[in-house]
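hey
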């Protein structure tokens, strides 16, 4: 069934987009059940209906062997080449025959070369293939054809034409599409002169191999100096690892986030999926390397397909079956938080703590609800302190007034909204000032427990922020594996700030900073680290409260000067609280830069509502400890006028 629907995915796009609303309503009904997104049934009905219609209307597409993309590309290229270069259809047949029999042809007469020139043919795969095929055939002609034409006279005759070529090359300044050319041994000298005139660069003298602008090769061939030519290929691992599984062409999200424009790494930073468990017998997971189950996985209940779906979006391997995840070779860890058939708060907390205990990694939380849950929040804060990045689905109540959704709304949670095939925020995606970025979350093809769907897949897919979050989680682990020098606070910033601005310009509650871009995130300049997070409350910085060690005081007895650079963010990091030593009979001075509000506070477990010891003005705050004993006080920094900012605080102690 999956295969049958394969081809229709993108073709019916505009029509299908109109279906978003009923799908969302389906989800809303499910919301009352308290879980994530259950769009499947209606989604499937709609898609099946459409697919049938289309298949009837346009049978040849389905008949073409939909999974062999390469073959189709070549076929397409060949057709294109014939149409453009060999107008009479009958001749096209002759070309094929000639290819097979290796009959030398003079078909590549002068007009061929100039055709290629007047259609400077860019860098697309199709064109490259087209040209390559024709050239391979023509090479045979050059090899086997008459050689006696080449001589000084030919060289002279060719020179003006070559100059034209060169001029065109300079004017076009096209991306350097080059061929590797081996000059014929019998014409080594003349050939070298011609090739150099044509803009070639000698690569290996002993083998007479040159790199030549692709469009110049036909002329050189006609001059009879080319023994062999071939398009210069990019090497090589990328091609090998290119996602090739049968349903990849349905995974429209790949290009939307640039997953197809960079090569995912081998195993590296782990991603933990805290969800409903995965089907370990599924073809995507049964033999998957680097897959660790942190507890027993059950997928018996109807609602327990969610974990399998989410995990497949992150990490389905490129294994010849079904879908390919964002990061196919990710170190995948799974925690089943539905021991009784539904997602369970205690089990989710347990899973987050368990994931965090194992060291820095990405933790995916594709669930949420409207109830604030301090214990869940603590588990997340703990994971952040231990160096992990927690990614959460924004929620699917965008058309229901976007009620506050947890854990998405907690500070330090990388909150992900959902976009559709047009890179627009899906109507159902919950709006929130705590949103960080958006990722595709409409019609995402996923793996499904085989006990619930015999094909093992849902195609064209499922919708919900549940499926946008794992795209970001997979991308986060990918980028982190490539950039291991980043800490979690830096990775957090890199992912959201490198995203592509969509919707309202700049930050907005629908898309956050924009649409995930993996290529951008791989190269985005690293921001400064934001130390000691989380540090919003005394509970988070005092020893033996939330964390045994608390945070290190910036200054202490005998160490009374310090400087710190850090960052605050109105939504994600609303305050930075530091412990600072105020020596007896001394004045503690805090000089700060950046658009922040700084206060010096009593060391108390409640910081709100108490009167401060000092308020920063014009970049400085001072507090004189007139007592006989030194005390610890707090310095509190908040963003005052901007959404987020870096800042610096310098501390000194003086007699007056
Ligand atoms: Ca697969
Ligand atoms: Ca957030
Ligand atoms: Ca901070
Ligand atoms: Ca903070």
């Amino acid at each position: 069934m999956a295969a049958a629907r394969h081809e229709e995915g993108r073709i019916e796009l505009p029509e299908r987009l109109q279906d978003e609303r009923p799908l969302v309503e389906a989800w809303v009904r499910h919301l009352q059940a308290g879980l994530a997104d259950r769009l499947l049934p209606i989604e499937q009905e709609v898609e099946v209906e459409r697919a049938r219609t289309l298949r009837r209307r346009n049978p040849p597409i389905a008949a073409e062997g939909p999974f062999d993309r390469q073959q189709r590309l070549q076929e397409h290229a060949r057709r294109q080449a014939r149409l453009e270069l060999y107008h009479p259809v009958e001749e096209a047949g002759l070309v094929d025959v000639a290819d097979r029999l290796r009959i030398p042809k003079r078909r590549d007469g002068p007009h061929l070369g100039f055709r290629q020139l007047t259609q400077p043919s860019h860098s697309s795969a199709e064109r490259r293939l087209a040209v390559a095929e024709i050239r391979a055939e023509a090479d045979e002609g050059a090899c086997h054809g008459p050689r006696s034409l080449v001589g000084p006279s030919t060289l002279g005759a060719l020179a003006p034409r070559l100059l034209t070529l060169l001029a065109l090359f300079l004017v076009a300044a096209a991306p350097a599409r080059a061929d590797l050319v081996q000059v014929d041994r019998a014409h080594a000298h003349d050939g070298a002169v011609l090739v150099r005139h044509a803009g070639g660069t000698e690569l290996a003298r002993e083998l007479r191999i040159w790199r030549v602008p692709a469009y110049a090769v036909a002329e050189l061939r006609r001059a009879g100096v080319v023994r062999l030519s071939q398009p210069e290929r990019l090497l090589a691992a990328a091609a090998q690892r290119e996602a090739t599984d049968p349903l990849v062409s349905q995974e429209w999200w790949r290009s939307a986030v640039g997953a197809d424009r960079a090569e995912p790494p081998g195993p590296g930073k782990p991603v933990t999926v805290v969800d409903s468990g995965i089907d370990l017998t599924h073809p995507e997971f049964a033999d998957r390397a680097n897959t660790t189950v942190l507890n027993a996985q059950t997928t018996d209940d109807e609602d327990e397909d969610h974990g399998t779906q989410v995990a497949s979006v992150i990490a389905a391997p490129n294994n010849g079956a079904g879908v390919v995840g964002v990061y196919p070779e990710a170190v995948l860890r799974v925690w089943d938080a539905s021991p009784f058939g539904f997602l369970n708060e205690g089990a989710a907390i347990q899973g987050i703590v368990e994931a965090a205990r194992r060291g820095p990694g990405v933790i995916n939380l594709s669930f949420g609800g409207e109830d604030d849950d301090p214990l869940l929040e603590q588990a997340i804060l703990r994971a952040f302190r231990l160096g992990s990045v927690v990614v959460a689905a924004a929620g699917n109540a965008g058309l229901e007034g976007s009620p506050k959704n947890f854990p998405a709304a907690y500070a330090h949670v990388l909150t992900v909204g959902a976009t559709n095939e047009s890179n627009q925020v899906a109507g159902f995606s919950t709006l929130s000032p705590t949103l960080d970025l958006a990722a595709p979350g409409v019609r995402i093809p996923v793996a499904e427990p085989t006990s619930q769907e015999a094909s093992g897949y849902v195609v064209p897919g499922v919708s919900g922020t549940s499926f946008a979050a794992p795209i970001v989680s997979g991308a986060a682990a990918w980028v982190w594996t490539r950039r291991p020098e980043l800490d979690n606070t830096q990775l957090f910033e890199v992912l959201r700030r490198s995203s592509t601005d969509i919707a309202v310009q700049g930050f907005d509650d629908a898309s956050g900073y924009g649409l995930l871009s993996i290529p951008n995130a791989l190269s985005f300049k690293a921001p400064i680290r934001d130390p000691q997070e989380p540090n919003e409350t005394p509970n988070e910085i005092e020893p033996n409260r939330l964390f045994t060690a608390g945070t290190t005081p910036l200054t202490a007895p005998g160490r009374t000067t310090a400087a710190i650079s850090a960052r605050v963010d109105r939504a994600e990091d609303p305050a930075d609280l530091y412990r600072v030593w105020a020596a007896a009979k001394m004045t503690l001075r805090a000089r700060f830069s950046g658009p922040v509000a700084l206060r010096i506070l009593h060391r108390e477990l409640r910081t709100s509502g108490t009167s401060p010891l000092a308020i920063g003005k014009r970049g400085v705050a001072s507090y004189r400890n007139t007592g006989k004993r030194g005390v610890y006080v707090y310095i509190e920094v908040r963003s005052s006028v901007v959404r987020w900012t870096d800042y610096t605080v310098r501390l000194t102690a003086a007699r007056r």
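Confidence is low (pLDDT under 50) at residues 1-175, 235-240. The pocket of calcium ion (ligand 2) is lined by residues 413-415, 434, 436, 572 (CB under 6 Å).
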